[in-house]
Structure formats: structure tokens, C-alpha cells
Design brief:
The protein is an alpha/beta fold. The protein has one domain (3-254): Rossmann fold. It has helices at 41-48, 71-77, 93-99, 110-123, 139-153, 169-186, 197-203, 221-224, 227-234, and strands at 3-12, 15-25, 30-34, 56-61, 64-65, 78-81, 157-161, 189-193, 206-211, 214-219, 236-243, 246-254. Strands 6-7-8-3-9-10 form a six-stranded mixed sheet, with helices on both faces. Helix 3 runs parallel beside helix 5 and helix 4 packs across helix 5. The radius of gyration is 18 Å and the shape is globular. The model has no long low-confidence stretch (mean pLDDT 95). The structure holds adenosine-5'-triphosphate. Adenosine-5'-triphosphate binds at residues 12-13, 15, 17, 35, 37-43. This is Iron complex transport system ATP-binding protein. Residues 3-237 form the ABC transporter domain. GO terms for molecular function: ATP binding; ATP hydrolysis activity.
Length: 255
């Protein structure tokens, strides 16, 4: 049982965005996807969620080709947290989170659905926002709603595209903890693109490092985020270490 990309290739506008990606996300695992701007992280996430059709290779979810899964089965398999919310037609925060339950609507009563939405809103501290229009929230508040919607979706895998980029320090840690706890408690597999290397090292089980459409290294953060590799991929000389068990990556100089 995995969400698996095999020999994935993607071309857009005459450019190769993904070039032979092999990656498997297991249940109960938090895998962080790192890499410079334009490395292909969002493109990979879009292919894994079926939003973009790869030009070559396959994506399988628990042994089934993604391209053949009916829409509702796909929504029960994979939840996606986009970088931005898109057009919401004036939906409230509670309505946005309720959208996460769309694929379950034939299997639960309206009362059950409301109870789930209420508990997810509470979990993310979003009760005070429940009736406010999503479009009228700040960028960080919107990001918390999009994570909450994905949690409400109760899928087996979750793909998060820079879910903490607009969050303040406390809400960053809070959101990463929530994802970590979800992975540990519910056994979902989560793949998260993120730019904060230290947070990735701290919360992830494995790191996948991308550069120019390719996977450069996959594994434990200590093996992947070495000073040599950070220099090679990001062009930055960095100190890497741990303080009281918390990893840090301290950029020293641009090379
Ligand atoms: N629709 C598109 N058509 C053509 N090229 C695209 C398209 N979307 C993205 N790209 C290009 O594909 C490359 C990979 O983009 P992608 O968004 O996957 O990178 P990323 O690693 O997520 O970057 P970032 O860290 O900046 O979010 C970039 O060079 C980008 O300009």
C-alpha cells in the first residue's frame, strides 16, 4: 500500500519539469519535499494528485492507476492542500471545510457531517472564523482553512504544497505538529513541499530533495541535508547540526 510515482516525466511549454521521478509514499510516513524555486515540487504534487497528467511514467495509489480512479474514490484516497485557495464564490470557512466531506456525503448524515466539521474547526482554532467568508481572511488564516479542509477529507494520503509559507511562527509549528500527529494517529501518508529545511528535518520521517526536475536524494535528513549537498543544490554554504535534539540548518554564505 503506497502512493507511488514510477519514472514520472512531465513537459510543459516545451520544457521538462519532471524527469524520471521514482518515489513511494507509505502510510504512516511524513515525507518532506525540498528543493530550490522551480525545482518541480508543485509539479510533482500536481501529478501525484491527478491534477496534471504526466507525459510518461505512472502514478499508482494502493496498486490502482490514479488515472483510472473515479473522482470520489480519488478524493477518499488523496487530499490536496494547494498553495492558494482559488475561486471560492463567497463560501464561508465552515462551508469550505465542509467541502472536504464531499466524497463521504453518501455515507454520513448531515448531523454527522456537521459534527466532523465542528471538531476539525476546533482542532485548528478556526471556530471564531466559521461564518466569515474565506476570501476575507488573511493569507495565513486561509492556509489554516485549507489544511483543515484536507483533514476533514479523511483521505489515506495527503499532499501539501507549502502549507506553512504564510503562517506565523506559532501557527507554523502548530500546523506541522497537526500533520505529524495525524500521520502518527491515523496512519495516513503525507507528502509536504516546504522551504524551511530545519522544520522538514525536525518533523519528517524522510526527506526527498529535488533539483531541476529530478530527485537528488531521498532518506533520513542527516544523510540528505549535508553541507556539500546544500552547496550543490542551493548554492549556499550552511552549518548543519542539532540543538537539544532539534535540527538546524544555518545558511552562512551564498556560493
Ligand atoms: N503551467 C506551466 N507551464 C510551463 N512551465 C511551468 C508551468 N508551471 C510551472 N512551470 C515551470 O516548471 C518549473 C517547476 O515549477 P514548480 O512550480 O513545480 O516548482 P517548485 O519546486 O514548486 O517551485 P517553488 O519553490 O518556487 O514553488 C518552473 O521552472 C516553472 O517555471
Amino acid at each position: 500500500m503506497t502512493l507511488t510515482a514510477r519514472s514520472l516525466r512531465l513537459q510543459r511549454g516545451g520544457r521538462t519539469l519532471l524527469d524520471g521521478i521514482d518515489l513511494a509514499l507509505a502510510p504512516g510516513e511524513l515525507l518532506c519535499l525540498l528543493g530550490p524555486n522551480g525545482a518541480g515540487k508543485s509539479s510533482l504534487i500536481r501529478c501525484l494528485d491527478g491534477i496534471w497528467k504526466p507525459g510518461g511514467g505512472t502514478v499508482e495509489v494502493d496498486g490502482h492507476p490514479l488515472s483510472r480512479l473515479p473522482r470520489e474514490a480519488l478524493a477518499r484516497a488523496i487530499a490536496y492542500v494547494p498553495q492558494q485557495g482559488g475561486e471560492t464564490l463567497g463560501l464561508s470557512v465552515a462551508e469550505m471545510v465542509t467541502l472536504g466531506r464531499a466524497a463521504h456525503r453518501h455515507r454520513e448524515s448531515a448531523a454527522e457531517r456537521r459534527a466532523i466539521v465542528r471538531s476539525v474547526l476546533a482542532r485548528f482554532g478556526l471556530e471564531p472564523f466559521a461564518l466569515r467568508p474565506f476570501d476575507a481572511l488573511s493569507g495565513g488564516e486561509r492556509q489554516r482553512v485549507l489544511i483543515a479542509r484536507a483533514v476533514a477529507q479523511d483521505a489515506r494520503y495527503m499532499l501539501l504544497d507549502e502549507p506553512t509559507s504564510a503562517l506565523d511562527l506559532r501557527h507554523q509549528i502548530d500546523a506541522l505538529r497537526q500533520v505529524r500527529e495525524l500521520v502518527d494517529a491515523s496512519g495516513i501518508g503525507a507528502l509536504m513541499a516546504i522551504h524551511d529545511l530545519g522544520a522538514a528535518a525536525r518533523f519528517a520521517d524522510r526527506i526527498a530533495l529535488m533539483s531541476e526536475g529530478r530527485l537528488v536524494a531521498v532518506g533520513d535528513w542527516r544523510a540528505v541535508l549535508t553541507p556539500d549537498r546544500l552547496r550543490e543544490v542551493f548554492g549556499v554554504a550552511a552549518h548543519v547540526g542539532e540543538i537539544e535534539g532539534i535540527p538546524y540548518i544555518l545558511p552562512a554564505e551564498v556560493r
